[in-house]
Amino acid sequence: MATITRSTITNVLAKQGILIAFVLFIIGFGLANSRFLAVDNVLGVIRSSAILGVIALGVTFVVISGNLDLSVGSMMSFSTIVVLDLHDKLGPLMAIPAMFALTMCLGAFIGFLVGYLKLNSLIVTLGMLSAIHGLTLTWSGGKNMDIADKQGTWFGIFGRGDVLGIPVPILFFALLAIVLSILLARTPFGRKVYAVGGNGTAATFSGIPRARIVFLSYVISSFCVACAGLLQASRSLGSQNTVGQGLELEVLAAVILGGASLLGGAGTVFKTVIGVLILGFIQNGLLLVGLAFYVQYVVTWVIIILAVWLDIAAKRGRFLSPIA
Amino acid sequence: MTEGTPALRLSGIVKTFPGVRALDDVSFDVMPGEVHALLGENGAGKSTLMKVLAGIHQPNEGDIFIEEQKVVMRSPLDAKAKGVVLIHQELSLAEELSAAENIYLGELPTKSFGRVDWATLHEKSGAILERLKCSFGPRTIVGDLSIANMQMVEIARALTVDAKAVIFDEPTASLTDAEKVVLFDIIRDLKARGVGIVYISHRMDEIFTISDRISVLRDGSYRGTLMTAVTNEEEVTKLMIGRSLDLTRNVQPAEMGDVAIAVQGLSCGKMFQDISFEVRTGEVLGFYGLVGAGRTEIAETLFGLRTPSAGQILIDGEVVKINSPMDAIRMGISLVPESRKEQGLVLGMNCKDNMTLPQVGDLTAGPFVSDGAEIAIFDQYRDKLAIKTPGWREKVGNLSGGNQQKIVIGKWLSMRPRVLIVDEPTRGIDVGSKSEIHALIRDLAKQGYAVIVISSEMPEVLQVSDRIVAMFHGRLMRIFSSQEVTEDSLVQAISGLNTDRVA
Ligand SMILES: Nc1ncnc2c1ncn2[C@@H]1O[C@H](COP(=O)(O)OP(=O)(O)OP(=O)(O)O)[C@@H](O)[C@H]1O
Ligand SMILES: [Mg+2]
Q1: Secondary structure in 3-state letters for B445-481
Q2: Residue ranges of chain B that CATH labels 3.40.50.300
Q3: What pLDDT score does B237 carry?
Q4: Nearest protein CA to atom 8 of ligand 1, as residue
Q5: What pLDDT, in 10s, does the model give residues A260-275?
Q6: Nearest to B469 by CA among B215, B289, B343, B202
Q7: Which of A287, B19, B144, B354 has the most crowded Cβ, counting Cβ within 10 A?
Q8: Sequence-ordered list of residues with C-beta below 8 angstroms from that of A309, at least 6 positions apart, any chain
Q9: What is the arithmetic mean of pLDDT over B90-101?
Q10: B350 CB less than 6 Å from ligand 1?
Q11: How many other CB atoms are found less than 10 A from the CB of residue B178?
């Protein structure tokens, strides 16, 4: 079967629709603006996407298991504020693990509600979005949080340092992506995440502890949020209480752009990375073209919707069926 | 009846999927007022051919004619408008909607401004349900119905239009005998009105009861057409699988060992009460009864999916608590569930991943899943069960219905359980594979497994079981040995007519 038929073409389109859209987009902007593909610009984009990207990696697990996580933005504000505050009280060496522990407790709590008590994840995480915001304000007393001695701490290395010319946040993002990709694609746990999201009943009938898998996916998500909080705090060494506000929707957009299904059971870490980069490059491209930031909002979402439409249209081309 | 203008004709149909030539130059026709049966092994292409006809798949080559007018079926609704209705093998209902809404899905009657005309909707769909002698009303939410009743809703859909042709793709797979009788009445009624009918089934008795002609597909190509009146099962089977089958009943008891699993006074609320039985290693215990007799619920209780309200379960003579499927699996129990689509498979996953799902935690090299170990298991059971698939990477959702069922069976056989429970194991499986699965079940018993077979098909129960439990309304009526059982006594016991209970 060496001949290329129409069905194999639509097949490739269906599987790689987003990737193709991405490449076309890069070429288009690259031609429109020569700075777009310059090495420093590219690194800059990836670097500024890293925080969003790190969170998106974790949310990928939650979405594949068939749930949503809308609390990640507010949870990241929490970890940023907490680690900055504890930095001065306990010193950076203790502040970091303490912040991770607190953030992951929040994740475990959400995981408990959604996994074991089987509450609707949309409601739970929407509620937690507000609750955690309140928690953050209580912790900080509503004030901005700043590190007292910004020159004298090594805490900035995560957000500001670089290794061999590559910014640490990018390395962090890449490393986490590789580890989580292996976890999802190569381990029994990862397989179970897909099964639970693909067909929860069949997973139960296969002896898979559904509640525990959902629980763990939220814990992973909160771990990633803690990482993002660390990067954010380390980069700015000071922060507002609302630093993560609105991030949850951008994260979700990146995950869906990457091709994970909101119904669960489909998606990969690699595809999420692509989704994150698409989003980052779109925003950067629009900036270079010189659009005002509020126009950017509109154009970003139009492009996201177009990309998703292309993806679905390509899939329809393969299944020609309006039912399946 | 083969003269005149066919209601429907397909000519030279070719349909390929990536890696599969599902249909290769197939022609087929149905006369008005005729029941044309379509037979073939699992994956032969029957459902695909009918999906082409009903506008779900577009053929790569070939033409469709309605009353010798060439047509193109753009979509299922388009096909329906042209008078061709398909009743699916796999249920395709919206479970949150009412029966009425499902019946008229996509073509709800409307009033001005596109408002749904509920009165008309409920009246019309109510009439159809009545014609089908259904016990539920048009307002019932489909998700609350039993699988058999969902099937009736699916059938009701076909009766909303003046169809020229109605296609039944394995409609009886989950119907009781009584419902089957109703279905056959409907088919005869349609027939009398000059509707052409295509009937797909793996049950020979049905085919010979209802059909006028029988066409056979094999590996995607057309093998021939026989007149039902002048052919017999053997001839059809030969055309279908290229050999004849040995369908002898099991009377020879296997060598039995110790009691592997025993149940004493087990009850679960209203589902079943005071059930006691035991299964020895090397034994096949059949469970026969009507749908709703509580057999599936007993299986689910043994597998840790339901909590018994009284009684106990003993494994190897020790009382055990089975709180979850995980516990059950650890104790060496496997359950091939009743519904492959809801309970058995993750349709979006590939064949290999589905098959190894319950044991994926053990198939590891270090912390990672070992592809090699998984593929070895998949290959072994693909060969053992003759599963037809382009490869382990194929999504299970793309397999034919019967081959999906075989994946579920392979999944649980590969666990090498001590106690294997199979609930309607051969639903949707072709006659050849069916007798192979029966042989396999006997073979497993011989190897020292204790097997429980739940089935609504009497020949199946008779053929594989050493002893047969007859159930009625959640009660164990009687346990027969295979020497003493007769079809009559079994029918009596499951209808509650025989009250002398022997445990
Ligand atoms: N959507 C699809 N994508 C890929 N392959 C498919 C698809 N649908 C069917 N096939 C393949 O086409 C072949 C014929 O399948 P089909 O469902 O028509 O078989 P069938 O005769 O109805 O079998 P059964 O008796 O098991 O229902 C099978 O090999 C199946 O794997
Ligand atoms: Mg079929």
Answers
A1: HHCCCEEEEEECCHHHHHHHCCEEEEEECCEEEEEEE
A2: 8-241, 245-332+418-503
A3: 87
A4: B398
A5: 888 889 899 999 999 8
A6: B289
A7: B354
A8: none
A9: 85
A10: no
A11: 12
Residue whose C-alpha is closest to residue B314's, from B284, B276, B287, B257: B276
Q: Atom 31 (ligand 1): residue with closest C-alpha?
A: B399
Q: Which residues contact A107 (CB under 8 A, 6 or more apart)?
A: A75, A218, A219, A220, A221, A222, A223, A225
Start-to-end Cα distance in chain B: 54
Taking each helix axis from N to C end, the angle separating A72-90 and A39-64, rounded to the nearest 10 degrees, works out to: 110
Interface test with B, best of A205, A208, A213 (most B CBs within 10 A): A205
CA-closest candidate to residue B21, choices B198, B217, B165, B274: B217
Would you place residue A17 in the very low, low, confident or very high pLDDT band (cuts 50, 70, 90)? low
- What single-letter amino acid sits at B415? M
CA distance B382 to B372: 15
Count of residues for chain A?
Answer: 324
The pLDDT score that the predictor gives to residue A2 is 37
Q: Which residue, among B290, B291, B304, has the nearest Cα to B335 in the 3D structure?
A: B304
Task: Please check the confidence at residue B15 and state whether its pLDDT lies above 70.
Answer: yes
Tokens of A106: 């929040």
Burial of A130 (0-12, 13-18, 19+ CB in 10 A): exposed
Residue that is written with structure tokens 């009584």 in the block = B178
Does residue B40's CB lie within 6 angstroms of at least one atom of ligand 1?
yes
B343 in A contact zone (CB under 8 Å): yes
Nearest to A16 by CA among A318, A253, A301: A318
Q: Does the pLDDT at position B30 exceed 70? A: yes
Average pLDDT over all residues of chain A: 87
B46 ligand 1 Cβ < 6 A: yes
**Which single residue is written with the structure tokens 């959902």?**
A214
Beta strands in chain A (DSSP E): 145-146, 162-163, 166-167, 238-239
Q: How many angstroms separate the CA atoms of A128 and A75, rounded?
A: 9
pLDDT in tens, B304-343: 999 999 999 999 989 999 999 999 999 999 999 988 888 9
Task: Return the amino acid letter for B245.
Answer: L
Assign B143 to helix, strand or coil. helix
**pLDDT: is B481 or A230 the higher one?**
A230
Q: Which fold has domain B8-241?
A: Rossmann fold (3.40.50)
- What is the C-alpha to C-alpha distance for residues B156 and B129, in angstroms, rounded to an integer? 7
Mutate to test the pocket of ligand 1, among B20, B409, B427 (most ligand atoms within 8 A of CB): B20
Q: What is the mean pLDDT of residues B153-180?
A: 84
**Do B368 and A182 make contact, defined as CB atoms within 8 angstroms?**
yes
Q: B369 is written with which tokens? A: 């899943």
Confidence class for position A320, pLDDT limits 50, 70, 90: very low
| pTM (2 d.p.) | 0.86
Q: Is B413 left (phi over 0), alpha (psi -120 to 50) or beta?
A: alpha
Looking at the DSSP assignment, which residues form a beta bridge with residue B37?
A: B199, B214
| Residue A123 pLDDT level (bands cut at 50, 70, 90) | very high
How sure is the predictor about B149, in pLDDT bands with cuts at 50, 70 and 90? confident
In angstroms, rounded to a whole number, what is the distance separating the alpha carbons of residues B450 and B316? 11
The whole-angstrom separation of Cα B252 and Cα A144 is 84
Angle at alpha carbon of residue B256, lines to B251 and B257, rounded to 5° = 170
Residue nearest to atom 29 of ligand 1 (CA): B43
- Confidence grade of residue A321 (pLDDT, cut at 50, 70, 90): very low
Q: Say which residue, B491 or A191, is predicted with more confidence.
A: A191
The pLDDT, as a whole number, for residue B287 is: 95
Nearest to A202 among B305, B346, B360 (CB): B346
